[in-house]
Hints:
Elements: H1 12-41, H2 48-83, H3 89-116, H4 124-129, H5 132-146
Helix pairs in contact: 1-2, 1-3, 2-3, 3-5
Amino acid sequence: MSNLTGWLGLAYPWVKAAHVTFVIFWLAGLFLLPRLYAYHQEAPAGSPDDRVWIEREARVRSIILTPAIIVVWILGLMLATNLDIWDQHWFQAKLAFVIGLSAYQGWLGAYGKKLAKGERPLSNKAVRMLNEVPGVAAAIIVVLVIVRPF
């Protein structure tokens, strides 16, 4: 079993399982936060509902998204280093999508700050479309990892 070589040794499947688990947590947060933003956009700025949405969104960012992205990155880098796959094109493409999802999370955080200030720069439809970003990226990443098309 070549997957049990490298510096992770017998810990490899456990690290991989933990990585996949935290990817699920991360994606759950990336699906949830734009949905909360869609509802938040409809609340009048400064209203009691507005304050409730701000608090809910902050909890998703601090309790789900931030810890999940940190663990995903740490475990993912451990796996990539253990398998020495840095020069494989499927992995490079996957890494690009993960960097993109990380940037998307950063953008979501910035958008949440705008909502908290009472700004509504995007339409409700545009905010609802944000839910599609992590799903499309996840589907592409899964194909890259499982099929390894190149």
